[in-house]
Write a structure and sequence with these properties.
Radius of gyration: 26 Å
Order of helices and strands: HHHHHHHHHHHHHH
Helix content: over 70%
Structural class: mainly alpha
Shape: globular
Largest sheet: none
Number of strands: 0
Strand content: under 5%
Length: 351
């Protein structure tokens, strides 16, 4: 699929892939949007359309609009699912989320263990980990499961900053913004906010809508600014300091379960029952195993796409060189020169 060759049916496919992208990346912490994009075969088109948005504006905007609408629909579906399930089965949902994150941590350890001896990597890890601790337990004093009903300027600036920061997760495969939400203590508040926005007719709907639009708008402003202003910078940093960026992401993963549990235990609506404990424990263990398998499959698809992307230019070069390493263009030029010499010789003989 090429951006400049897309038809209506292609945009419908992009929309459906966007739904899957939003549903999985927001509903399952640890599964990044870029990883899902790689698996469904749309990641490089996303990156290309954003990087070259002003070169072919109309085509790129149509693609991004189709993808964004699908993503939004999937995100709302994930928000309703998590919010409703958390309301009735909070401990079981917490076990599932923590199981998913633990699976991601195990997968990350297997990838990063070869770089554990580097002191610089651990300095980055602990610096990010400590900053997250200071934010969650000192600055914010532990977030609750909802956003404030009367947000102050600090709350809106914080959401814009988080949006700006999470924009990097769109660029770097394997970094998940849902985990970033968990690490900042706003995962469930964000899901609850999306649910409230689309709960038409609910009590105090209009007053809550105004508040939620302010919070969501602040986040989106920061997110979009991050994508268009620092996407190239983050890409360069990731290319140059890839291991350090991975250890920073690893710090978010390790911090996420503690912050999430702290938020759950501080809520008056959180409760534990024997059936929940049994079901939650089983689902948590299954999620650990499934997450490891899913991440390995995503890595495999990523490597396959990288090989394919690398081979395509090589194939084009081979075609230009006749497929056997011979430069066909150079050969054609030489043949043309030989013909011209023969014609010149024949002309001299005739004279």
């Amino acid at each position: 699929m090429k951006l400049n060759e897309m038809r209506l049916k292609d945009y419908i496919v992009v929309f459906l892939k966007g739904v899957l992208l939003g549903l999985l990346s927001l509903g399952i912490p640890g599964v990044s949007a870029s990883t899902v994009g790689i698996i469904v075969g749309i990641y490089f088109l996303m990156v290309e359309s954003i990087a070259n948005i002003f070169k072919n504006f109309k085509t790129n905007v149509k693609f991004l609009l189709s993808l964004s609408l699908g993503y939004g629909a999937g995100a709302v579906g994930a928000a309703f699912s998590v919010t409703v399930l958390f309301k009735f089965f909070p401990f079981a949902v917490a076990c599932v989320i923590i199981g998913i994150i633990l699976g991601s941590i195990i997968d990350s350890v297997s990838k990063l263990k070869g770089d554990f001896k580097s002191l610089v990597n651990w300095i980055v890890f602990f610096a990010v980990f400590i900053l997250l601790g200071v934010y969650n337990f000192v600055i914010s004093s532990g977030q609750k499961l909802t956003f404030p009903s009367d947000p102050h300027v600090f709350d809106l600036i914080s959401m814009a900053f988080i949006g700006f920061f999470t924009s990097t997760t769109f660029i770097i495969p394997g970094v998940d913004f849902a985990v970033v939400f968990l690490s900042f203590g706003i995962y469930y508040p964000f899901m609850n906010m999306l649910t409230e926005i689309f709960s038409f007719g609910a009590e105090n709907y209009l007053s809550r809508l105004v508040v939620n639009v302010q919070i969501l708008g602040s986040y989106l402003v920061g997110y979009l600014l991050g994508i268009f202003l620092i996407s190239k910078l983050i890409k360069k940093l990731n290319d140059r300091f890839g291991k350090q960026m991975q250890f920073a992401s690893f710090a978010f993963l390790v911090a996420a379960p503690a912050v999430f549990l702290q938020n759950c235990l501080s809520s008056e609506t959180f409760f534990i029952s024997v059936p929940q404990a049994i079901v939650g424990g089983i689902l948590g263990v299954l999620c650990v195993a499934l997450m490891i398998v899913f991440m390995k499959y995503g890595d495999k698809k990523h490597r396959e796409l990288e090989v394919k992307t690398f081979d395509e230019p090589a194939a084009e070069t081979a075609n230009d060189t006749g497929g056997d390493g011979t430069d066909t263009v150079g050969t054609e030029n030489e043949e043309t020169e030989n013909c011209e010499e023969k014609i010149s010789e024949n002309g001299e003989k005739t004279e």
